[in-house]
Amino acid sequence: MTIKTALTYDDVLLVPQKSNILSRQDVDLSTKLSQNIDLKIPLVSANMDTITESKMAIAMALAGGIGIIHRFCSIEIQAKEVAKVKRKQNIVIDQPFTVNPDNTLAEVEKKMQELNCKSFLVTEDDSKELLGILTSRDILFVKNENTLVQDMMTPKSKLITASEDILPSQAKELLENNKIEKLPLVDSAFKIKGLITATDIVRNYNNVNASKDSRGRLLVGAAVGTKTGFMDRATALIEAGADVLVIDIAHGHSHNALEVIKAIKIKYPTVELIGGNIATAQAALDLIQAGVNGIKVGIGPGSTCTTRLTTGFGVPQLTAIMNIYPICQKHKLPLIADGGVKQPGDLVKALAAGANTVMIGGQFAGTEESPGLTITYKGRQYKISRGMASLSAALSRPDAKETADQITPEGIEARVPYRGSIKNIIDQFTGGLRSGMSYGNARNLTELRNNAEFIRITPAGQLESAPHDNEIL
């Protein structure tokens, strides 16, 4: 038996190149997540229950990346999280919230609080005919809780409306010229077809770097498992608007994972589907044959993962990327490097080795946007982060009682210092990447890969690469 050498990020450095890059801002960070999804930055937040729900996914998309909503909740809750992202910055709200004309002020105020919404289109339950619009301004000075919507609303005779095929520029002009904030979309029978708000128009024009779909909505992904019920979950997520599904299984090169991919592709041939996690070229070939649109690489490199210690299996992440990249390049499939990134330099190395995007969990944990409460321990704020194969994560699943005696943890739970907004972390990583690209004479990520020259370093070189011989303040 021949034992090969495998390397990870700390084992190598990139050799500086003669550079024609005059400014870090001259480089282009855009990339592909999957065959048909483009991103402005190569960052993806991990599908972990302490990393990505709607709040994180919204922040990631606004920054130009994408978040993958975790699956460790009911199908209904996960679908709602996806829908929250799609509604956040949507030029056209397909299904605007509505109230009936005979609803009372008390009912409206309760609904406003529950839905975090300040305006409603008014219609009868079944007709969908637009009767009027009710906003928070209409009820501002109404004291009687039994006042009916029909007595407070602006009736349709006084509304400015448009057809559903209106262009964003035309909608902007209508809103601006008429000094209104809501533009209902209706058909020839005055049935509701959508709603455009001034707030969403302004956001769309201001957030030019956000990751958006063809209709101006924020991009979002969602995870799907491989056990019974996976198709019901996939269906609900697609209907909620998920732009990409990620097969979430620790060992992606398994018969079960491949069969799930095939089944989803048969039922939903146009859905963007990412397979993984894998660590070998053969696994990539099998995933491609099953029908994936992107490949996620990483067996055991995550900061809360103990798969390699528990099972003895895995491939150091840099070698895994470099082994799989030629397969992805030949078949024109993007590669997602999942795990092991501790600092911006690791991001640069992953992309130079062949990754199109990098999925990050641990470094995004502890941020304001990550799920969970902020706790105080010995005078310092923390959030909890855990691997999705950890004992606590396994026990929190719906089938935990039936499978508790079969659980062998492959992850840990950790207390992570509170880090503030995710925007600060994203800026650190993209700033480091821009600097790295200037050292590599790369105006885009393709040039970064093509120009890359790796050298292996010794433990002494690793020590020399970090701050040393100083008392750090």
TrEMBL record:
EC number: 1.1.1.205
Domain CBS: start-end pairs: 92-152, 153-211
Domain of life of the organism encoding this protein: Bacteria
GO MF terms held by the record: IMP dehydrogenase activity; metal ion binding
Residues binding K(+), per UniProt: 300, 302, 305
Membrane-spanning residues: none
Coiled coil start-end: none
Broad EC category: oxidoreductase
Reactions catalysed: IMP + NAD(+) + H2O = XMP + NADH + H(+)
Amino acids binding NAD(+): 248-250, 298-300
Pathway linked to the protein: Purine metabolism; XMP biosynthesis via de novo pathway; XMP from IMP: step 1/1
Alphabetized UniProt keyword annotations: CBS domain, GMP biosynthesis, Metal-binding, NAD, Oxidoreductase, Potassium, Purine biosynthesis, Repeat
Subunit structure: Homotetramer.
Family assignment from sequence similarity: Belongs to the IMPDH/GMPR family.
UniProt protein name: Inosine-5'-monophosphate dehydrogenase
Organism: Candidatus Komeilibacteria bacterium CG11_big_fil_rev_8_21_14_0_20_36_20
